[in-house]
Write a structure and sequence with these properties.
single chain, alpha/beta, Rossmann fold, 2 domains, 13-stranded mixed sheet, two-stranded parallel ribbon, disordered N terminus
């Protein structure tokens, strides 16, 4: 695989989401309830289930209908209900291929889930998570991101939403539909904002503090968090943010989004004057059309957004429409609207290995240094020798496959993360903290002798503190990503405690972890998160200097 072939990358990103929905990564929180708990919200009473010290409310509606004449528009008002509504089952995820262990996807998908230590009116930090899957897949019930352990072990409230995705969430119709469809290219993002407003209005009843909300997310969820960080509609509803393995530096320009809309209409044989016929096309047919088009990655290559997307004929993701998303999230600068909101940003050291595993790509593991050059040259051209030479000098004992993984991983998620950290630090407002997740899984990629290391998405179960010994004292089972070594439990504890402390105070800290300095342009400190954590100054300095010389940062 060409390390930055975005179309192939997005295929693999969707595979990532599918893998995290498998039975091996299912939710563990509440099977049989010890008791039921009722709370009163702005729209009616809810009944959730309490077990093992955590109360979970599933499938709470936070917005009204988004189907029929509400397709591509703001949701219909949420109708109040009488009596007590059961909140014991997850709500439908957005339109996408069916997801294991979850309800059937549906167009009306505005539901959220809450995990809380208690509905006792205490003011706990709220951790509002946006799921991954690029902009086309995933849900707030994805496996691995079960919020029970965070709530139980760190006294926080966790919230996760379903929201519109793909064509139904990001089709740009502003120029065709007029004011009624203003913001249409960002409906998926505005859904998330509606979820944040629901938290503001209701979370006190669940033991959370509406004045202390952290937004966070991994992969596509990181890109969504990047957008929220720059959106005026979201600004009142959160206080800090974390962007994980999904640096959303740039999003789609309006002209590219308009081209994609025109291409869709042509595919459906609908003229621009008759665009309203889109409202009558079955959602399943729209999904089939969407699957013919390339997806938009949760980031755009520097200064090449339009060239990239036009080469790939389009895609669906947040649109820089000048209103809902006034500008690219972190281009040319960090957003002024969030100047005073602390930020975490970073990536996993071996992002690439996950995609190799899921797509059964074993060829990279057989590379030698001659074939490595051939592999990289189509992407990097005459810079290839410099690229390989820099990485070999910085990693003198690394094999050719390891060099390839290092280059591919930082190119996928690292360069954008560093870019965000530098721009936030230059802003001179609230601090930004840069991290690398580095716990190494010993699990081998099938049909190779190459270990996963720290692949894309492995951080999810670690930061949610779902890498823990069984509470009943039985022998631990092998982790889906993390392997069998007991050291993973310490790494998970560190990751979760750093994040929950950041949610509580705006400064990440944990027991047995060094003080984590804010990122600055002098020492450039990076926290490496593992079973033993360390702060590394000027990490990857030679490699980043080389990437800068190539115009990639």
């Amino acid at each position: 695989m060409d390390p930055l072939d975005r179309r192939d990358f997005l295929t693999r990103l969707t595979l990532a989401t599918a893998a995290l929905a498998t039975p091996g990564y299912s939710f563990s929180s509440v099977g049989r309830a010890d008791e039921f708990v009722e709370v009163t919200t702005t729209h009616g009473r809810l009944r959730g289930a309490r077990a093992e010290g955590v109360t979970i409310f599933k499938g709470i509606p936070y917005g009204g209908r988004v189907s029929g004449d509400r397709r591509f528009r703001r949701p219909a008002p949420l109708e109040p209900w009488t009596g007590v509504r059961e909140a014991l089952q997850f709500g439908a995820p957005a339109i996408q291929p069916p997801r294991r262990n979850e309800p059937t996807p549906a167009e009306d998908c505005l539901f959220l889930n809450v995990w809380t230590p208690a509905s006792d009116n205490r003011k706990r930090p709220v951790m509002f998570y946006s799921h991954g899957g690029g902009f086309v897949a995933g849900s707030g019930a994805s496996g691995g991101q079960d919020g029970a352990n965070l709530a139980r072990n760190f006294d926080v409230v966790v919230v996760e939403t379903n929201h519109r995705l793909g064509l139904l969430g990001f089709l740009y119709l502003d120029e065709l539909g007029g004011s009624e469809y203003a913001g249409s290219g960002n409906m998926g993002m505005l859904d998330i904002v509606a979820g944040l407003k629901w938290v503001h209005d209701n979370i006190t009843q669940f033991g959370g503090d509406p004045a202390n909300v952290m937004i966070w997310g991994e992969s596509g969820g990181g890109a969504k968090t990047s957008c929220l960080y720059a959106m005026p509609d979201a600004a009142l509803y959160f206080n800090k943010a974390s962007i994980e393995s999904g640096p959303g530096v740039r999003m789609l320009p309006k002209d590219v989004a308009a081209e994609t809309t025109a291409m869709l209409l042509k595919e459906l044989n609908i003229s621009s004057k008759e665009w309203r016929k889109l409202l009558d096309v079955p959602a399943a047919d729209l999904l089939a059309i969407q699957n013919k088009l390339p997806s938009v990655p949760p980031f755009q290559e520097k200064n090449k957004t339009q060239i990239l997307v036009r080469r790939n004929y389009g895609g669906f993701g947040p649109v820089v429409d000048g209103v809902v998303l006034p500008h690219h999230p972190f281009d040319p600068t960090a957003p002024a609207i969030s100047r005073n909101k602390p930020l975490l940003v970073g990536w996993n050291e071996d992002e690439y290995t996950f995609f190799a595993w899921q797509s059964k790509d074993t060829g990279f593991a057989k590379l030698d240094f001659d074939s490595l050059a051939n592999k990289l040259e189509p992407q990097y051209g005459t810079d290839t020798p410099k690229l390989i030479d820099t990485y070999r000098k910085s990693n003198p004992n690394a094999s050719a496959p390891a060099i390839f993984v290092a280059i591919s991983s930082i190119a996928m998620m690292g360069l954008g993360s560093v870019d965000i950290a530098e721009k936030k630090a230059k802003q001179g407002g609230a601090p930004v903290y840069l991290y690398n997740f580095g716990y190494k899984s010993e699990k081998k990629i099938p049909d190779t002798d190459y270990a996963l290391g720290t692949p894309h998405a492995m951080d999810i179960s670690f930061k949610f503190n779902n890498e823990v010994p069984p509470r009943d004292g039985s022998a631990p089972k092998e982790s889906y990503f993390g392997g069998n070594r007991h050291e993973r439990f310490a790494a998970s504890r560190h990751f979760a405690e750093l994040w929950t402390t950041f949610a509580r105070t705006g400064k990440p800290a944990a027991k047995d972890v060094p003080v984590w300095p804010a990122y600055n342009l002098n020492t450039r400190p990076t926290m490496r998160i593992d079973s033993t954590c360390e702060v590394i100054d000027n990490r990857f300095s030679h490699e980043l200097a080389m990437w800068r010389s190539m115009g990639k940062v």
